[in-house]
């Protein structure tokens, strides 16, 4: 059967579905791996990698994938409902990241170690601040009365662009985390490289989803 003009090849569509499903799997596998290694509850420090991974690997990734036309678990729901679920997941992300930061801050305080003395700590702190601002800035998209004088279309574009930057910061923070002494001492060999692939591949898929979505909208407008 001939394809409709302007429609994408089936193999391309199938590839997007496969990448989306793979991203769902990767963020879950990575979160489970860190949970097993950290054993949350065994020490104050153990909460830090667990909560940060829960925030930036699971909640943030799933929050973005909600809008995927190919692999969203709530694809059939309205855009408004997706927006609210997205905001809830982002709030969970911010909450877990805040608790994760608090745990490592207090742990360093108890052990007399300097705070934010590494790139991992600095990027993590910056990411948490950006997540908080991003969540607050999304309120006009949920409650349109707050966006008086602003074009909702422009607000959505700004939110998507800043959200992508936020996701990139979160991924960099995770990658710096797996370069830490704790993680490199817990795993070795191919396991480290496989772990690094999880946030790296997820980031590529998220970047593709966001850029393709807004490039397509721009073509429709033009």
From TrEMBL:
The keyword Electron transport applies. It comes from Oncorhynchus kisutch. The chain crosses the membrane at residues 17-38, 44-67, 87-106, 118-143, 164-184, 190-210. SMART domains: B561. It is a multi-pass membrane protein. GO terms for molecular function: metal ion binding; transmembrane ascorbate ferrireductase activity; transmembrane monodehydroascorbate reductase activity. GO terms for cellular component: endoplasmic reticulum; membrane. Its cofactor is heme b. It is an enzyme of class 7 (translocase). This is ascorbate ferrireductase (transmembrane). Keywords: Electron transport, Heme, Iron, Membrane, Metal-binding, Transmembrane, Transmembrane helix, Transport. Its EC number is 7.2.1.3.
């Amino acid at each position: 059967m001939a394809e409709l003009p302007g429609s994408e090849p089936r193999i391309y569509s199938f590839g997007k579905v496969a990448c989306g499903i793979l991203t769902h799997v990767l963020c879950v596998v990575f979160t489970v791996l860190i949970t097993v290694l950290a054993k949350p509850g065994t020490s104050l420090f153990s909460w830090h990698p667990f909560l940060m991974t829960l925030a930036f690997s699971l909640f943030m990734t799933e929050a973005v994938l909600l809008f995927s036309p190919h692999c969203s678990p709530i694809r059939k729901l309205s855009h408004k409902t997706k927006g609210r679920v997205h905001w809830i997941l982002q709030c969970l992300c911010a909450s877990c990241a805040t608790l994760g930061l608090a745990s490592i801050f207090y742990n360093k305080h108890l052990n007399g170690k300097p705070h934010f003395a590494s790139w991992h700590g600095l990027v993590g702190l910056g990411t948490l601040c950006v997540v908080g601002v991003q969540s607050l800035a999304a309120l006009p998209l949920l409650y349109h009365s707050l966006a008086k004088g602003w074009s909702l279309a422009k607000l959505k574009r700004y939110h998507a662009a800043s959200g992508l930057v936020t996701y990139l910061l979160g991924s960099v923070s995770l990658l710096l985390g797996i370069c830490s002494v704790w993680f490199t001492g817990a795993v070795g060999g191919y396991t480290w490289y496989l772990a690094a692939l999880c946030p790296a591949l997820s980031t590529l898929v998220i970047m593709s989803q966001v850029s393709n979505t807004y490039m397509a909208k721009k073509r429709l407008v033009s």
